[in-house]
Amino acid sequence: MATKLILDTDIGTDIDDAWALALCLASPEIELVGVTLVHADIDTRAKIALKMLKLAGRTDIPVYKGLSHPLTEGLGVYWHGHEGTDTDFSDIAGLSAKDGAVDFILDTIRRNPGEVVVAPIGPMTNIGAAIRKDCSTMRRVRRLTVMGATYEGEGRDKAAPEHNVRCDPHAAKVVLESDIPATVVGLNVTGRVRIRRDELQAIKDTPFGGYLAAMTGQYFGICGRDYSFMHDPLAIASEIDPSVVTTRKMSAEVLEEGKVAFTTDPSGSLDVAVDVDVDRFENLLRARVRSLCLKGS
User: Fold this and answer.
1) Quick check: 132 and 70 in contact, CB under 8 A?
2) What sign does the dihedral 240-241-242-244 (CA atoms) show?
3) 47: domain range?
4) Residues 185-220: tens digit of each pLDDT
5) Chain segment 228-245, per-residue pLDDT in tens
């Protein structure tokens, strides 16, 4: 049976969110029950998600707008990004996202206790807000699959910053110290997996693949390189094929400036990725997304 999954994303700031959405759509192991948006320009993020879903023939999947500003008091939006600057959205004029991502997450879990995986692959603002609003319901989630933090070793002196945590440290603290079961896939492993410019040739001549390739090419230009790290797809892949990462039971303490201190803890609620099978993951990602693109061509 496919796993019910909510993708909670800041799609558009980095290209990896779009590839993560594509991987969800391409994988029979996942039943994508909704996409929730978080951080900064929510309206444009919604348009990107809606356009991708339309091109994939999946307008049945609802898109919900979440929180644009962090829970961390006094903290502004970390990076507004370049979202949607090269995209023609005229083809989705009849589509729209709904408000209320936090309530959607909670309602979905209530209707399907113990069955829903929530995958925050952006700042953890929506998930932190859901825990603050109704912690008992969030404890009925099957698991959180988090792209965030980085494991550089044990304890506070090894804690290192990461973008998603830095964007909302308070939300990350609420989530990672909640004792809710979570798989945490951080920069220590996601920084080892990539998509490269020459790999876009296999998808660029299809409607869905053309849009994904165009966004990826734009991001290559912004980064000034011919590859991009596939942070978020690796987190999703860990749900599809857990063997792509090696995890260790840990507990976490969220510190200032987006740093997270991890400690090995056999009774901890976090399965933290400490290694990655690069070839297995990259082959899975390429094959799944190419299949999705060809299906819709």
Assistant:
1) no
2) negative
3) 3-295
4) 999 999 999 999 999 999 999 999 999 999 999 899
5) 999 999 999 999 999 999
Structural domains of the chain, count: 1
DSSP class per residue in 225-243: SSEEE-HHHHHHHHHH-GG
Which residues have CB under 8 Å from 175's CB, separation 6+?
120, 124, 127, 128, 131, 144, 146, 182
CA distance 193 to 255: 27
Query: Is 36:6 a contact under the CB 8 Å cutoff?
Result: yes
Buried b / exposed e over 204-221, threshold 16 CB at 10 Å, is bebebbbbbbebbeebbe
CA separation for the pair 47, 175 (Å, rounded): 27
| Torsion sign (Cα): 281, 275, 256, 128 | positive
Euclidean distance between CA atoms 134 and 178, whole angstroms:
12
CA 292 to CA 190: how far, in whole Å?
Answer: 23
Residue 247, domain CATH = 3.90.245.10
Contact criterion met (CB below 8 Å) for 232 and 289: no
Q: What is the DSSP letter of 202?
A: G
Cα–Cα distance between 173 and 168 in angstroms, integer?
A: 9
